[in-house]
Amino acid sequence: MIFHDRYLVGCAALAVAALVTIPPAHAQAPTQPTDAALNAEAAQNDWPTHHGTYKSYHYSGLDQINTGNVKNLEVAWMHFPERATRGIQSTPLALDGVLYYSGSYSRVYALDGATGKTIWAYAPELDEELVAKQTHSPYNRGIAIGHGNLYVGTVDGRLIALELKTGKPVWDTKLLDSKKMTVGFTGAPLVVKDKVIIGAQGGEWPHRGPIFGVDGKTGAKKWEFFTVAGTEEAMKTWGGDSWRTGGGGGWMPGAYDPETNAVWWGTANPAPLYDWGGADWKKSGPRPGENLYTTSVIALDPDTGKLKFYHQELPHDAWDFDSSVGEFVMIDRGGKKLVVHANKGGHIFVYDRSNAKIENVWPLVKNINFVKSIDPKTGELIGRRDLVEGKVDPPLCPAIAGGISWNSGAYSPKNGLFYRIGQEWCMELTVEKTTPILEPMAQLNIGATFKFIPPPDGPARGHLSARDPVTGAKKWEVTYPQPPLASVLATAGNLVFVPDSVGIVHAYNADTGEELWSRNNGMGHNAGIISYMAGGKQYVAVPAGWGSLVADEFVALYGEPFKSMPKNTGALVVFALRQ
Amino acid sequence: MRISFVMVAALAIIWSWLPTASFAQQSNSASSANPLPQAEASPDDIEGGKMFATTCGFCHQDGGRHAGRGPKLSKSERSDEYIIERIKKGKTGAMPAYGSVFTDGQIIAILAYIRGLDD
Question: May I ask which residue range the UniProt record assigns to the signal sequence (chain A) (predicted)?
Answer without folding.
Answer: 1-27
